[in-house]
């Protein structure tokens, strides 16, 4: 399959390195510097002590070309989506797969005029080391679901699932809203708490005071989203334990003075709470904490 991947962050590099093994991948980066680094060095993927280097076709996004592409995977942050969708004007017959955190981008996706639009939920741990290197810090699964599609494009998801390998599995999910909601709950609890406290994911369960915040925020998120806590708590704890040594993506963003995805995560929860006239004081407080850290980063 000929796949275009947009975004040279940790997830974009991870997807490119694995999918290049069975497909013809073109990676599009925001900068020419990153494209040049990958052209020179290939993509270096580290799995623990092991390291593999894969050559790959790479271009800056300014050289976008949709000809002969069978699937586009958008691996950029949620807040970058609107500009990319506007600038690239994807043709209606080009299938798109979005793999963002949160659910704030759903309103944008529903406005995109393409015949097949797929959504992914990425549960892998990944850390970009430099412009051409990524560390696969936690093996998870990529869940794939359909927002809308024509029957003739469904082979694409089948092919991605069939290509699953031990360290990069993929599976199909029937209900995209349930899939995204499970991921949202995980992101809404783990990401802001670890980013504010400056701790790894597992500390939220091993420190009794952090665990109290963990459970209180979880309860409030479920209330705001009208969710049955019993249907989501076990998955949240499982992810937290499975990624115990990892730093969340939001903590990494805060440490590197980058904009976070807090608006797509807790911002979405707050919008739902407001719509239902539900008080969510913890969610609002943690949202403001992260926004404050973003402003601090902008001033440095």
From TrEMBL:
InterPro entries with a match to the protein in the record: 6-PGluconate_DH-like_C_sf, 6PGD_dom2, ApbA, Ketopantoate_reductase, KPA_reductase, KPR_N, NAD(P)-bd_dom_sf
Pathway info: Cofactor biosynthesis; (R)-pantothenate biosynthesis; (R)-pantoate from 3-methyl-2-oxobutanoate: step 2/2
Lineage summary: Bacteria, Bacillati, Bacillota, Bacilli, Bacillales
NADP listed as a keyword: yes
Residue intervals of the Ketopantoate reductase C-terminal domain: 180-294
Domain Ketopantoate reductase N-terminal: 3-145
GO MF, one annotated term: 2-dehydropantoate 2-reductase activity
UniProt keywords, alphabetically: NADP, Oxidoreductase, Pantothenate biosynthesis
Catalyzed chemical reaction(s): (R)-pantoate + NADP(+) = 2-dehydropantoate + NADPH + H(+)
Keyword NADP included in the entry's annotation: yes
Assigned protein family: Belongs to the ketopantoate reductase family.
Job of this protein: Catalyzes the NADPH-dependent reduction of ketopantoate into pantoic acid.
Protein name as catalogued: 2-dehydropantoate 2-reductase
Top-level taxon of origin: Bacteria
EC number(s) from the headed UniProt entry: 1.1.1.169
Species: Robertmurraya beringensis
